[in-house]
Design a protein that fits this description.
It contains 14 helices and 17 strands. By secondary structure, it is of the alpha+beta class. Helix 2 packs antiparallel against helix 7. The protein is flat and about 140 Å long.
Length: 474
């Protein structure tokens, strides 16, 4: 930009004067920035509202699912003996279970060697390896194999052989993959006898070192004797999976999983209240109304705090949400037609009701679920698409909320309009700032020229004074 003289000759703070002049001329840009900021705050408020609505949508979707109301739980009085899980098809009831023995997987070991990583033909006299069978499958043992290489080769073929191998205290330990009374079968190489020399088999071909005997689980269920090869039983009580943990007695009670339903309704109430509280905050519902003639700075400050004030789309959403949770579900033939009948309602009091948040009477909800769980389910999840006479509360809420949150839905559309306005303001601010920069450069140029002119005049004055002084002396 060249040399700038900051009042060196005139004594004026020319740069300060320029800054003050520019501050005056920059006021329209400040106003444009404030207006853009108001639209940006509204855009961000829609994003925040969308997040809350998606949370509510998730909670509502849970209430549409039949599993939320039909799921069963299998409770054990002694989980050290047996635990249970129940499918929706399980019938409510109590079952006495006595576990006599757990199923075990057959486990055998070799003799102890002095090393697990040394070739066996250098540890065992006359060890030449050979071809053996494990559970009817051929398996090769080499003369220079170590316990570690045999272990690794077994585990590589575990699906084929049906066993797993480990090394404990320099012993090769072989365990059947499945529990039950079936033993691991070994057949030795008739010529070289590697399994006998390892100490897995005796000279007669029997198991030499049995660590765990193969056995089935033995139990009684309501005095009915049951034997299974596994400790996980899926076919003893219809719809119930029993997992045996130890010997002893317990009672398994199968009943409706009321807690899952209650927790789902709690999550719905919390998510719903998060939405309506956000709307109340962003619309200034509880704030003092703006008076006519409010200054622009106060108006802008209010927009920052309450970006949804007067927004008809948000007001409509708020009204729809309230109607959907308070109106009766016309057409249902069950005993429950409104949420308040199952404990979900607006609180008492004018101000509380005005806010729109709902409350849950958990005792009332549990009573309703005990009396008629099917009716509670229909109140939430009934759907005309499934043949019901009306759509339940959750079904209607889901349809309405999806229109707001889906791609190119109501929120996307609102934000697209806002973004166009924000972009327009950004373009105007950019153009205005460019003009301001040109204006500043012009002012700097003018003041610099003034300082340069004053400097030239001062130089001439000093020259004249010098000339006059010289003439006077002559």
């Amino acid at each position: 930009m060249g040399v700038q003289f900051g009042g060196l000759v005139s004594g004026l703070d020319t740069l300060g004067i320029i800054d003050k002049l520019m501050a005056v001329e920059r006021r329209p840009a400040v106003l444009l920035t404030q207006r853009k900021g108001a639209y940006q705050v509204r855009y961000d408020a829609w994003s925040e509202l969308e997040t809350k609505l998606n949370d509510l949508l998730t909670a509502v979707n849970e209430l549409k699912a039949s599993a939320t109301f039909r799921s069963r739980t299998a409770m054990s009085t002694n989980e050290a003996v047996v635990t249970g899980t129940a499918a929706e098809s399980a019938v409510s009831g109590k079952y006495a279970v006595t576990v006599n023995q757990l199923a075990q997987a057959h486990r055998v070991a070799s003799d102890r060697q002095t090393s697990a990583s040394t070739a066996l033909n250098s540890l065992i006299a006359g060890f030449n390896g050979g071809t053996v069978t494990i559970n009817g499958q051929s398996f090769i043992i080499n003369a220079d194999d170590t316990l570690e290489t045999i272990r690794d080769r077994i585990n590589t073929s575990t699906q084929t052989l049906g066993v797993n191998a480990t090394i404990v205290d320099n012993r090769l330990v072989v365990t059947r993959n499945e529990t039950g009374a079936t033993q691991i079968s070994f057949t030795d190489d008739t010529a070289n006898k590697p399994l006998e020399k390892l100490g897995i088999l005796t000279s007669a071909g029997a198991i030499k070192n049995e660590l765990v005997a193969a056995r089935d689980a033995s139990l009684t269920v309501d005095l009915v004797a049951v034997t299974r090869s596994s400790n996980t039983l899926t076919d003893v009580i219809s719809g119930v999976t029993l997992t045996l943990k130890g010997t002893g007695s317990s009672t398994i009670e199968v009943k409706n999983d009321v807690d899952r339903t209650v927790n789902a309704v709690k999550a719905f109430v919390d998510a719903y209240n998060a939405v309506v509280n956000l709307i109340a905050d962003k619309t200034g519902q509880n704030a003092k109304p703006l008076e006519k003639g409010t200054r622009s700075d106060a108006y802008n400050e209010d927009l920052q705090q309450h970006p949804f004030r007067g927004d008809p789309a948000v007001t409509t959403l708020s009204s729809r949400l309230r109607r959907l949770v308070t109106d009766k579900v016309a057409g249902l033939t069950t005993q429950y037609e409104a949420l308040w009948q199952v404990g979900v309602s607006l609180p008492s009091g004018v101000e509380a009701a005005k806010q729109g948040a709902i409350t849950l009477d958990e005792t009332k909800l549990r009573d309703a679920l005990a009396k008629d769980p099917a009716a509670v389910q229909k109140l939430f999840s009934a759907g005309t698409a499934e043949g019901d006479a009306a759509n339940g509360v959750a079904t209607r809420l889901y349809a309405d909320l999806y229109e707001y949150t889906k791609a190119n839905g109501l929120i996307d559309s609102a934000q697209q309009v806002l973004q166009v306005t924000i972009d327009r303001y950004e373009d105007r601010i950019k153009a205005f700032n460019e003009r301001l920069e040109l204006r500043r450069r012009d002012l700097v140029r003018r003041f610099t020229a003034m300082e340069q002119s004053l400097a030239a005049l001062q130089a001439q004055s000093q020259w004249l004074v010098g000339q006059f002084g010289a003439a006077a002396k002559g």
